[in-house]
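Human: I would love a firmer grasp of how sequence relates to backbone shape in proteins. Could you go through the record with me and say what the backbone is doing? Here is the record:
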Amino acid sequence: MTDTPSSEGTPATVGQVITGEPFVVTREDSDQFESSTWIDRAYPDDAIPEFPEDIVEGFHLLALVDPVLQFALGKDRGSMWGLNYGLDKVRFISQVRLGDRVIPTFETLAVEPKDGGFKVLRRCTFTVEGAERPAMVADWWGYQLPRGVVEKARRS
């Protein structure tokens, strides 16, 4: 976990790289993801027999980007809040298997002012421990606002 600057300090984070805590996707995690996203209905077990059962879905990894970043940042939720703003590019480069230790890193590439807050572009990289190539790289925009900005705008 790292100390996170206040909203005013956000532009100074460009170039900063944060390494999060390693994590593991378990069979239970995978089953819950497949159930909640209907993958288990769209692709019954016998539909693709050659697909290895222990591979973690790429979109499962992508769904973990936000919570894993929040764990790494340790943000003061009392002063700021954020929204997903979109993705520029996502690539699933190499496989992650159930039980692999995944090392997440987040590099701030750009910060742009927007309506009292900031759009923040981060390169999110998940790499299996010991692997030469990353498993996933996603360029992800977040919209960070200090608390109170929305309420002030509504009252004006």
Notes: The first helix runs from residue 27 to 36. Strands lie at 17-19, 23-24, 80-92, 101-114, 117-128, 136-146. The chain has a mean pLDDT of 86.
